[in-house]
Amino acid sequence: MSTATRTSAVRRAGSRSGAREPSGPQTPPGSAAVRAPRRRISPERVAAALTLVALLAASIVALNSIGIDPAKMARSWSNAERFFGRVGAITFPEPGELLYFTALTVGLVICGTLLAAVISVPVAYLAASNTTPGNGWRAFARFFGVLTRSIPDVVFAMVFVLIFSLGALPGILAIGIHSIGMISKMFADAIEQIDEGPRLAIRAGGGSKLQEFTAGVLPQVMPSWVATVLHRNDINLRGSVILGYIGVVGLGMQMSFAFKSLDYGLGLGYAVVIFVLCVAMEVVSSAVRAAMLGIQPTGRGLGDRMLRGLRRIRPGSERLGVQAAAASPAAMLRRPWNGERVRNTVWGWIAAAVVVGSILICDIQWGDFITVWAKVPEIAAQFWPPSFGSYDASAMFEAMGETISIALAATLLTVIVSIVVGSLAARNVAPTRGVRAGMRLLLVVVRGIPEIILAIVLIVISGLGTQAGTIALAIGGVGLLGKLLADSFEEVKAGPERALTAAGASRLQVYAGATVPQGLRAMIGHTFYMIDCNIRSATLLGIVGAGGVGYYLLNASQGSHYGIVTAIVLMILVTVLLVEGLAIWMRRVFR
Amino acid sequence: MTNPQTPTDTVITLSSVTKRFGATTALNGVSIEVERGEIVVLLGLSGSGKSTLLRHVDGLEQPTDGSIKVLGENVAGLSGRPLRTLRSKVGFIFQQFELVPSLSVLENVLTGALATLRGPRLGLWSYGRANKLAALGHLDRVGLLDRAYQRADTLSGGQQQRVAIARALMQNPEILLADEPVASLDPESSDQVMALIREIALDRGLTVLCSLHQVDLALSWADRIVGLRHGEVVLDTPTVGLTKAQVMEIYGRVATTTSELQAIEAELLVGSIPDSAR
Ligand SMILES: Nc1ncnc2c1ncn2[C@@H]1O[C@H](COP(=O)(O)OP(=O)(O)OP(=O)(O)O)[C@@H](O)[C@H]1O
Ligand SMILES: [Mg+2]
């Protein structure tokens, strides 16, 4: 290790002196065009670039075929006016009921997320390159993660609703299993980024593998893990709405009942409640994350850098001979109640209370876990073999195609809007601080909106289907992609920007010449992530009437044609895995 | 010598140990014996194999060839609990301290007791009162009792290294290995830490094997110096009556090229500057 630090120090010193005395470019004779080296183009890069172009073309075609045109939208706005005239005012359920279903929804989501977090620990342990016991285990854990991530939680819920009939359990299990994919991946990433030193020290002291993990790895990854869980909890709350449509209790189910009984006022009331709840949760969890990172610096954050700076300024007090009066070891057995300990304890108790409250409100029928096993073989038999039932195979493929079109079109819209909004939200691009703050706020609010709620509201109000779904996805995506882009723009090296500014480039030229080229790779990566997310979301849109394969999924499950459910899930699985494979390939090629 | 199980009081024996990493030969036929209670310094340039050698003694690395005996056990043949038990008798101090940054000082010291405990441990309470008391005692010994409940990464480098020493003491070791324990410290803290290690070793009759860069420090601190070069032992001599010039001369004799000699002088003399400046 010391060798490495020393060489890097030498390298740093070397580059510094190099910067001080720039050696003029060597200019051998001959025309520049002759001497200029040919740019080497690898066939793989060409293929990847062509794929990108093809995807772009496909997205444009998709957008066209869906037919989002402003004139039509304006016309549907009069539709909306008529709608409100007919429906009257938005109504809310009575407070007691509202409170109960809100608590139930939040509790169910928290239980599900926690379940996923607990299962994700061993999965991440097996999947992380530095803790895995072997490559076979690693491949297995990763496959398991990808599988749980690729099957929509709605499908898990359909299965569990059958097995457990009523209550919160189907929702908890569906959220719990579906979330393993993302949580375990991010847990594993965090494990791979730890400092190996402390772990080695514990091994050198005779610690076992498990002890290495609990004493050396866990404390290092904890802040990042908690942030991941909070983040996923937000996503799950937004996603929980749609679970209501297939029989999972909570606000989503109440809303679907209201719409089914044509009580649009009440349905919209529930939609407003869910929207407010999602934004509130987003705010709370980002506050918690910020507070937590303040207590436990990750080593990369701004807070940590400031802390380190302070430490450097303050000289070691003990070196100045002001050693505080040290008591005897026995007297020190009791940990003193300082501010930090009080704060940690209070946070700990609040967290514990929230968890216990969540479990209590869900009223889990623990007995079910013992009795359901008898039902499993019978239900499994209903799901196998996959078939298209009375549907035409071509109709199904067409529906899947429509889902993909919606996803691509929505991604295109999202990318266009996000480049503008995300750029303006980046510190180094925004013309003024005010613009940046405004854009960041906009992104937070948009991120809080559940896409499904947006789709439902748009469908109900405008009477449109596929178009409404696409717009809902596109808007929802801006919240995520806009933030990711803004962050990557802020992370680019400032040097090239300063160099261009110094050379007299305009603001837009600096942006195009220095900021975008540096952020391009991240942009491609994030865009693929967006396509990935949108395909998953688009499969579900049909459930609320926004076109695509989701409609058939809901129909099949309501008509108890579970073979069709399996067939559709397989189609979704193949599509999602293809996109994921494509994304991995792109990231590798454009590295 | 009296006990037939341990015929001599040699606690570390390396017999023609060779270690290759792919094409690199990190250790080449190294044979060293260290007696109980001896304080030995490994001297050598960067890349000469000091760290690799120390890691072999603790079973963190397996030799390509040759054998290693530590406290009468054949390290290369051990695994599982016997290996962990042996490791617990060997304290290891690292150049970068390697404390868990987000844990308290006390909990870091307690991790030294893990080998004597079964199962995973999380949180101070899980170590039990007796261990906590012992850990606080060790912290008192290194002069950091009042810092017990502070986060480890809020301490200065010298303090962190003292916590690492307390962690090693928590293992109740018979041998102390230290890999350039003061290379990332300022001269003042480095004197403190070196003095502390020596005091503790003499107090408890510990055997110490410590790698260093500075010839001056090694001469004043160790009972014996072992010099490594390109993974080979080129020097193995008691420090009594030895002068720096003699050490340099031996290195000079084995250096094959003048540039290598310059490198040796640069590396080994650099360490002496803070000492002479004092
Ligand atoms: N895990 C490893 N894989 C490959 N090569 C290694 C490994 N560990 C050590 N080496 C090589 O073995 C040689 C000896 O390394 P070692 O770290 O033991 O040197 P050192 O004397 O401790 O150097 P320094 O003073 O810089 O710490 C070096 O050439 C190094 O590159
Ligand atoms: Mg070393």
Automatic annotation (TrEMBL), chain A:
Per the record, membrane topology reads:
Multi-pass membrane protein
What sequence ranges are listed for the domain ABC transmembrane type-1?
102-285, 400-583
InterPro entries per UniProt: MetI-like (IPR000515), MetI-like_sf (IPR035906)
Q: Which GO terms describe its biological process?
A: transmembrane transport
Q: Which UniProt keyword terms apply here?
A: Cell membrane, Membrane, Transmembrane, Transmembrane helix, Transport
Q: Which cellular component, as a GO term, is one annotated location?
A: plasma membrane
According to its UniProt record, where is this protein located?
Cell membrane
Q: What CDD domains does its record include?
A: TM_PBP2
Which residue ranges are recorded for the region named Disordered?
A: 1-38
Bias category Low complexity: which stretches? 1-17
Primary location class: membrane
Task: Mark the transmembrane ranges.
Answer: 46-66, 98-128, 154-177, 241-259, 265-284, 346-366, 404-426, 438-461, 467-486, 533-554, 560-585
Whether Transmembrane counts among this entry's keywords is yes
| Similarity annotation | Belongs to the binding-protein-dependent transport system permease family.
Q: Which PANTHER family match?
A: ABC TRANSPORT SYSTEM PERMEASE PROTEIN P69, PHOSPHONATES TRANSPORT SYSTEM PERMEASE PROTEIN
Annotated protein name in UniProt: Phosphonate transport system permease protein
Organism encoding this protein? Agreia pratensis
TrEMBL record, chain B:
According to the lineage, what is the superkingdom?
Bacteria
SUPFAM superfamilies in the record: P-loop containing nucleoside triphosphate hydrolases
Question: Mitochondrion as a keyword?
Answer: no
One annotated GO molecular function is: ATP binding
Q: Where is the ABC transporter domain?
A: 12-255
Keywords assigned by UniProt, alphabetized:
ATP-binding, Cell membrane, Membrane, Nucleotide-binding, Translocase, Transport
The protein's matches in InterPro entries, at most eight in alphabetical order, are given as: AAA+_ATPase, ABC_transporter-like_ATP-bd, ABC_transporter-like_CS, ABC_transpr_PhnC, MetN_ABC_transporter-like, P-loop_NTPase
Note whether Nucleotide-binding occurs among the keywords: yes
The entry's cellular-component GO terms read:
membrane
Q: Which PANTHER family match?
A: AMINO ACID IMPORT ATP-BINDING PROTEIN (PTHR43166), PHOSPHONATES IMPORT ATP-BINDING PROTEIN PHNC (PTHR43166:SF6)
Name-wise, this protein is: Phosphonate transport system ATP-binding protein
- Which organism does this record belong to? Agreia pratensis
Tell me the lineage of the source organism. Answer: Bacteria, Bacillati, Actinomycetota, Actinomycetes, Micrococcales
